[in-house]
Design brief:
Helix content: 40-55%
Shape: elongated
Strand content: 15-25%
Strand order of the largest sheet: 3-2-1-6-5-4
Mean pLDDT: 79
Structural class: alpha/beta
Number of strands: 24
Number of helices: 21
Low-confidence stretches: 1-18, 29-35, 355-362, 523-544
């Protein structure tokens, strides 16, 4: 037998080795050689909690030492066990197996090792492990059996307690997941109606006060939806159900999406907000763009929450490079309230805010950074935080991208010189961090007088960048004057969408928040669209409208059908509706539709059943699943059933545009 074979689970390896060495000495010699061996063996057995037994075949007698006697609930001293007594104590369910094991050992093997239950005289149950060795005489008959008893009862109790706890935890996790899935569905369904109707109402010619009311309604709904998404994401992370995908994506798409997502907040708070990418980072990466977006957006939401003035920057910087591994640092910095260094270790805990006053003033669930930390851990990313009270905070996450060949791009030097007129000192700081510009290549002014002074003192500025309304005079008027006197200078105005229509001919513009690489490297402008000037003349609405496409909406919720129909009408789709799966099948029997929007969960036939039925009949047109279920399992079920895509309620018109563009 191997040394540890004689040791019950949980006993130390050193004890097991000591027992085995001494035990083999006993087996090989038939008796202990001297008093020292005897004492050492007793000490090792005592330390390991083992008892001994000895069976004399000639006398048909079994002897137990005191510890074996105690294990079986008998006397506390050594005892002689009568024939049949041991069998009567073994649990009836275990006895046949143990007797068969002993019989096989007696007929062939010399060693045995088995576990069984014992019914103690006091009514309790003990778990015993017996290991032993069979001696034979010259004729091959069993002459004696000697071995050890180990009491496994404490170990079994721990295992049973652990098993019960595991089962209870599993039941609790299942109940929690079911509850969250149900609540997600039940909350998202009315939210689809609230947010959808708010969008539709916003396009009905409201006055300023009504527009404010609707905007407040929609922003409150979005906040509620974000809280719901955070709770669902946290539950997925805790359950270990969130998995990273590996797909090809462009980092610039992730950054631009994050910039667009926080445009409104940066405008409302008047915070200078921009982002950039290290020019050496490859255009295409392999990883999970969805989870990367989740990290960036949670960090940015946290930055905007705690920043009232100044700037917020997000940028990606090359950290290290080898042929098949790329490490990229994601930085998000702000000029917000800062974080006490004593609180930073608690920063990524769930539902964690600095104190109750922070929660009351700034709101939020405290889940965003916890989600970031969990995703980073799954990704194998490292997080660092630097912060100074009342000055700001910078998060740095080092993300590994591995198992693909990467080739770095050449770093391009900045061309020309930049004269920047802005109220935001952070603009210059952003350029300084992004580019190794010389001091004479960039100058920042914050007034029109300083701007003209720089233009007169230095005639070779190649680029003038004007912040919209950086002074009392309109930036568009200033741009015209510069064009008249310095026709060779490239002029760019950075502004929010609503000001684009006022940009003069021949002047570049860059929408806020802008991607800084485009401003410095691309040297290209958005083509100024022909914008219809607002007019006070009433437009007479016609009662008829032509549609280019057709769609079928299959949903058991009337409000959801109405919202989706109105949104699709705006996109040029004539819509028919069906209130359940059977009605949807009947509608498809009569005509075909360019696209079907199929609710996942309906009474009778659910969306996956209807989709399978249609596909089995040869229906080849796009079917888009729409559901209030936000868990990945429902998306997978929909795609396996034959749907082409899956949208989660509440559905936005931009999502509809994107999916319709792909499939029509």
């Amino acid at each position: 037998m191997e040394p540890l074979d004689l040791v019950a689970g949980g006993l130390g390896a050193a004890f097991g080795i000591a027992i085995t060495i001494l035990w083999r000495a006993l087996l090989n010699r038939g008796q202990l050689k001297d008093q020292n061996d005897n004492q050492l063996l007793r000490l090792a057995l005592h330390a390991a909690g083992a008892g001994t037994f000895f069976y004399d075949a000639e006398k048909d007698e079994t002897f137990w030492d005191p510890r074996s006697s105690e294990m079986f609930g008998l006397s506390s001293g050594p005892m002689r066990v009568q024939a049949g007594s041991w069998e009567s104590m073994v649990h009836p369910d275990d006895l046949p197996r143990i007797l068969e094991e002993i019989d096989r050992a007696a007929k062939g093997r010399q060693e045995f090792d088995y576990e069984y239950r014992v019914l103690k005289p006091n009514g309790g149950t003990a778990h015993i492990r017996g290991v032993g060795y069979i001696d034979r005489d010259a004729h091959g008959r069993v002459s004696r059996i000697q071995g050890l008893h180990f009491n496994l009862t404490p170990q079994k109790k721990r295992e049973e307690a652990l098993q019960k706890a595991t089962e209870q935890a599993h039941r609790s996790a299942t109940a929690k997941a079911d509850f969250l899935a149900m609540m997600s569905h039940e909350i998202r369904t009315p939210m689809n109606g609230i947010l959808g109707m708010a969008d539709l109402l916003n396009d009905t010619g409201l006055d300023q006060k009504q527009h404010t009311y609707v905007s407040t309604l929609r922003s409150s709904g979005e906040l509620l939806l974000n809280i719901l998404n955070d709770i669902l994401d946290l539950s997925k992370l805790e359950a270990g159900k969130l998995k990273l995908e590996t797909t090809e994506f462009k980092l610039v798409d992730v950054l631009k999406h994050s910039l667009q997502l926080h445009t409104k907040t940066s405008s409302e708070k008047n915070i200078f907000f921009t982002g950039w990418i290290d020019e050496q980072i490859p255009d295409v990466l392999y990883g999970d763009p969805v989870r990367l977006s989740q990290i960036t957006n949670n960090l940015l939401s946290n930055a905007f929450k705690f920043t009232e003035k100044g700037h917020i920057f997000i940028w990606f910087e090359l950290a290290s490079y080898s042929k098949y591994e790329l490490k990229i640092e994601l930085h998000v910095s702000d000029t917000g309230i800062g974080i006490d260094e004593n609180y930073i270790p608690k920063l990524f805990q769930s539902f964690s805010q600095k104190d109750s006053s922070t929660s009351r003033k700034y709101g939020g669930t405290g889940l965003g950074l916890s989600i970031v930390k969990n995703i980073a851990d799954i990704w194998g990313a490292e997080i660092e935080v630097e912060s100074t009270i009342n000055e700001g905070t910078e998060f740095t996450i080092t993300l590994p991208f591995v198992e693909h060949y990467y080739a770095l791009k050449d770093r391009r030097p900045a061309d020309g010189s930049y004269l920047i007129a802005t109220r935001f000192p952070g603009f210059r700081k952003a350029l300084k961090q992004m580019l190794p510009l010389k001091s004479e290549q960039i100058r920042v002014v914050n007034s029109e007088a300083d701007l003209w002074r720089e233009l007169e003192s230095k005639s070779d500025w190649s680029n003038v960048i004007l912040e919209q309304r950086f002074s009392d005079q309109n930036s568009s008027d200033i741009a015209k004057k510069i064009k008249d006197s310095h026709s060779d200078i490239e002029i760019t105005i950075t502004c929010f969408e609503k000001y684009i229509q006022y940009i003069p001919e021949g002047v570049r513009y860059l929408r806020k928040p802008f991607f800084l690489n485009e401003l410095v490297f691309e040297n290209t402008s958005d083509k100024l669209p022909e914008i219809q000037r607002p007019t006070t003349k009433a437009v007479k609405k016609t009662s008829t409208k032509t549609f280019d496409h057709s769609a079928l909406i299959v949903d058991d919720n009337a409000i959801n059908r109405m919202v989706l129909i109105k949104l699709l009408n705006k996109l040029g789709y004539d819509c028919k509706e069906a209130e359940d799966g059977n009605a949807g099948l009947a509608a498809c029997d009569k005509t075909h539709y360019d696209v079907i929007f199929m609710d996942f969960e309906m009474p009778g036939m659910n969306g996956t059943d209807v989709t399978r039925h249609l596909r089995n009949q040869g229906y080849k047109y796009p079917i888009i699943g729409i559901s209030a279920h936000a868990f990945e399992q429902y998306r997978n079920q929909s795609l396996l059933a034959g749907m082409n895509d899956y949208l989660t309620k509440p559905v936005k018109i931009d999502q509809l545009k994107e999916v319709l563009t792909r499939f029509n």
